[in-house]
Every structure is written in structure tokens, then in C-alpha cells.
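SEQUENCE WITH STRUCTURE:
===
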Amino acid sequence: MKKNFIISIDQGTTSSRSILFNLKGKPIYSSQKEFTQYFPRNGWVEHNPEEIWNTTKKTLIDVINKAKRIRANVLTIGITNQRETTILWDKKTGKAVYNAIVWQDRRQEDFCRKLRKQKRETLVFNKTGLLIDSYFSATKIKWILDNVPLAKKLMAKKQLLFGTIDSFLIWRLTKGKVHATDATNASRTMIYNISTNKWDDKILKILKIQKHILPQVKDCADDYGSTHSSITGRPIPISGVVGDQQAATIGQCCFEPGSLKSTYGTGAFILLNTGSRKIYSKNRLLTTIGYRINGKNTYALEGSIFIAGAGVQWLRDKMKFINKASDTEKIVRKLKNNSGVYLVPAFTGIGAPYWNANARGVLSGITRDTESKEIVRATLESVAYQTHDLFEAMKNDGLKPKLVKVDGGMVMNNWFSQYLADIINVKVLRPKVNETTALGAAFMAGLKIGVYKSLKEIAKQWSLDKKFLPKVNSKFRKKVLKGWNNAIKRTLIT
């Protein structure tokens, strides 16, 4: 007798993955392919949409073939994705008019500065919960429309479509039958009103973006059509779509107001569930949709760190200090302290709570004796310090989390997870299933088709792998944070 499974497509910033989950939320098989990162100019980051599609398709087919070999019945597919990354494509041909502009891309900072000077920030913040920043999709759409003649031409002919990566994949998987996104991805575009649950006409008018290019916005657990049989052998329903950080929140079962998760992937992102209440931060955190089920929004407060795992990639690919990410733990365990060395990895500006696109990286405290191992440690430490800054912002907004559930590649490093607990002075919990982003998409897909009856039932699937309790005294914490704050001050001098 065949057993039932769910496939999650996890399309990330540096790779595309597909994972086969059983109905208890355990990953059975995974397929992953990296793709090229393009940096045409300083501050520009792009992906080739065809590479995204081909790597996604190959991993999906690989997992489907594995499912066949083990006589697994695939019930449905869930999709999670890098969120703000933007693609515009021709409705008739399905071909992108330009490369995907990645969430890390900073090319529209001058335009954002112009909008701020026009006093648009309060309007945008109140409607979308977001600050005006080139991080979000809206300014990326604007750049393509202003700089790619074909895009403007197709928009005039009503032949142009916009999507974050989820929309593009759905379009390709359904052979152009479905142009849709979910509420979490829509809430990251800077053109979606998170109170009315509609694309905002006023902001669209300011940016000169026509509404007909935008996808339909659905619940996270919803009907997104079915894959075309020419791609997957048979039609498979797509019934769950969630932006990656919100998906991790769901995968971590942060369903109660006040519950919090922090994901350490390419960047790092903290989301705090605020329930049905929108909390507008006074400390430059973002208000976003955590998930939407049965037409009802659950909101979240979010802090964004642009460089987390990307810093480790920098150590490996650019500095050649390590051969693989796991080398970092062996290196830092040999050091008694950081020797006063601090790295602020503002390689593409710096995110919350500073939001300074012009900031650039700073390595401070180096001496003649400084070696690569100190820089490796400083890179890992920087992520813990940035997390502390976000926790402080939340505290200043009147929120005091007592624990944080963590996930992502970096937290498999036990040294880092312990140092994180030490610096934020909060209990850190790591789950047995670290693939929380993909798991969240699987949960939503399963919820839609009735595999799971409720969020309470989903919450029963979460289990603890390891707990990290703060071990250092306040004197040590104050000392290293003082060093970090001094480094930050140098970074922000522009």
C-alpha cells in the first residue's frame, strides 16, 4: 500500500531545493542545485530566471522520481521562496524581460531617497507596514519599467506580468494557467495594503505601475492550480504558498501571539507573531503578514539582517579562509576570545534597525597579529550582535520575548547557537527538523487538502533537538557589545 507524502519546493537565494516530507513533517528525501549569482555593478545582485526555473524543475523531477521508486503517493506541492526578488515576464512567451532583481539589490536607493524627500514614507509605512527601501519589490519593478524598453512596451499592450519567485514558478508549473501569489509575498512588495488586503491604488499611481501586471493574491493554504503533466508526469495540486521567512515561522509552529523565530540562512530574519493586531514599530522594524488562512491575517513584526550565511560564503568563496561552512566551528573553538576584532558585514548596506543602504563593511580592531581565524570568528559573532540589535528594538517597542526558536544552516554550528544565546540573553531552541522553511510550505499545502485539520494539529509535529541557555555574565556581554557598537558607528559614517 502506498503511503502519502507532500513535496515542498524551496526556492532560495543561492539554490533551489525540493524536499519530500511524510505527513508527520519528517524530510525523507531532498534534492538541491545551486545557481549563479550575478553582480553587474557595485550593489547590484541578479539571478537568471531560466536558471531558477531549470534548477527548480530538475530538483522537483528528481524528488518525484524518488517518490516513485519508494512507492510514495504525492498528494500535493507547497512552494516557499526568496521573497522580494522580482521578475517581469512576457505573458505570451513566458520569457523574462530582464534578469531577476534580487532582494539584496540596492540599485534604487537614489529613487528611494527621492521618495523620502517627498515625504512618502509615512503613507507607505501606514499602508504596507514597510519602510521605503530598495530591498522591496516595488522599486525593482519601477527600475525595470524605466530601464527596459520591452517592459514598458509590453505593459502598454497588457502583455506584461510581475511576480515574486513563487508567482513565476506557479506560472511555469501550470503552463501559464495561474498568475497568483500569496498574502505573505504580496506584503513584501511595498505596494500591497496589509489592512485592506488589496494592491494599493495610491502607491501604484506614485510608482506608475499598472495593476493589470500584478498577480491575484490568495491565502497561504489555497488552490494554486495543478502542475502540468508534461512537467511532473501527472497533474499534482499546488495548495500551499508562503514567503520563506513566514514559512519558517509556520514550520516552527509559532502560532501564538508573542512566539518568535529567527532564521539564519543567506540573511537572517526574526519574526514575532502579533496575532490579529498590527504593531507599528517605533524602532524601524517592519509590520508584515505572518500568514493568511481562510481570509484572516495573522500579523508579525520583522527584523531583517542582510548578511548572515552570506558572510560565511564570503569567507569561503572570496577570502578563501575556509573550504566549507562547517569549518568555521572547528576554527572558532580554538580561540579563547575575539581579540577585539569586529566585522560589520554591511556588504550591501545594513538592514534593521539602521536601514542604511550606503553603509559599507568595516573590519575593526585588527593588529599585526590578526589572522584569518579572528576574522572567521568576527563574521559569526556579527550575526549574534545584529540579532541583539533587533531584540533591543523589539524591547523598545514594548515586546520582551522569553525564548526564540532558531533554524537555518548557521544554527547547526553549536558554537554559534550558544554564542547567540549568550549575547541576546534569551533561551534558544533548535528543532529536530531544521528544514523549517520547506516544512512550513508543506504544512500549508497539507492544511488546504485536509491532511491537517488545524494549526493546533500542525503544532504537535514540532519537536526539540537542542536547547541553548545563556552562560556568560553581564560584564562580558556589555564588553563585547560595546566593541560592536563602536564598529557600527564607524560603518554608519557615510
Observations:
- The chain has a mean pLDDT of 94.
- DSSP finds 17 helices and 22 strands in the chain.
